[in-house]
Amino acid sequence: MSTDAATSTNNSKASARTKSAAGEYLTFVLGTEEYGLEILKVQEIRGYDAVTQIANTPDFIKGVVNLRGKIVPIVDLRIKFHLGKVEYDEFTVVIILNLSGRVVGIVVDGVSDVMALQDDQIRDVPSLVTSIDTKYIVGLATVEQQMLILVDIEQLMSSDDMALLDSAIH
Predict the structure, then answer these.
(1) What does the pLDDT look like over 82-92, one tens digit per residue?
(2) pTM of this prediction?
(3) In total, how many domains does the chain have?
């Protein structure tokens, strides 16, 4: 396959991925950046409460909470993404996600809005744009003057790091 054909194939794969990204996204803040994740993955949004810590887990796994009888692991995305100083205040929230029947909470600095994004608002991610691994990013969306990093939360939560969650709570 020629280089041009390979580039064309890769571009069409990236375009197909981005094209299917249109939909409604819950937007949230981590540090100074705004992120979005598919609204259909969100079960509920709660204020940050104390968690029960689990021994021998990475720093980004804050612990677990009992959510109506179900043990839910809590992951601080600010720590996971190496976003510097992490403070817990009245704006810190936990987004409870339902990912293929698996319930996980993520700690974020704040929740902003629910936005409906169209195909023409979503772009591919240039390499080395963010401090997080781009394989977890669906694309970049522009809404007015605001840039959103769209995260494939299911891909992120099923990574090798997240396997530690399963072993820690089972």
Answers:
(1) 887 788 888 89
(2) 0.80
(3) 1
